Amino acid sequence: MQELQRQKPSVPVVFVGITDPVETGIVKSWPRPGGNATGFMSVETALTAKRLELLKEIAPGVSRVLVLVNSGIDANLIALRAIEAAAPFFGVQVSSGIVRDGSEIESAIEGIARTLFALASRYRLPAIYSFRYFGVDGGLLSYGPDIVDMYRRSVTYVDRILKGEKPGDLPVQAPVKHELVINLNAAKAMGLTVPPMLLARADEVIE
For residue 180, which of 124, 129, 125, 127 has the smallest C-alpha distance? Predict the structure, then answer.
């Protein structure tokens, strides 16, 4: 994104799915982005605290959390710092595992699992993910913004820019619609009972 801005500073950009565009240097501020870019953030730091809260609801015994981070992606490092800041409020310790591809994920999980618990065939660690498709594809929980909704909203910015408004004058917008997906099959495989109140709050339940 930054490279595009450097190469084509006069080309208007409407982004979707950026994490904290101020910290990553894409815009100057949320209300007044300046420059040639504006758009829709996919993640707010407040979401990380909410994910820890949900994880503790479905697995109250969790006392340590492993955050898998791709060190080459600024958004991952921003999210890690937010999780570390929120962790004390939920009584959990945070460890991070640096991964660059799929082959390194298992090694990162094994590293923390040795100090927690091992199961006969496989490590069964309660996990929460950022987007709906993770829960649908078999993850225990997912909580995050409705990506389709953000793309729909981005069309209004494209329309306004085509009619003459400047991207730098259009405020960056945070997600307004979030989705909680609970996968009961995954919960059962882990021996977890989903609290009824948490189940009632889910936007989608996979059975």
Answer: 129
Q: Of 109, 136, 134, nearest to 123 (Cα)?
A: 109
Q: What is the pTM of this model?
A: 0.74
Q: What is the pLDDT of residues 70-109, one digit of tens each?
A: 665 666 777 788 888 888 999 998 887 766 665 655 565 5
| CA distances in angstroms from 177 to 91, 134, 166, 200, listed in the order given | 28, 17, 26, 17
What is the rounded end-to-end Cα distance, in angstroms, of the chain?
Answer: 39
Q: List, in order of start, the domains of the chain with CATH numbers.
A: 2-43+147-177 (3.40.50.2300)
| Cα–Cα distance list, 3 to 6, 9, 42, 75 (Å) | 5, 10, 20, 16
Give the pair of three-digit tokens for residue 146. 């409705």
Q: What are phi and psi of 166, to 5 degrees?
A: -95, 135
| Whether 168 contacts 120, CB under 8 Å | no
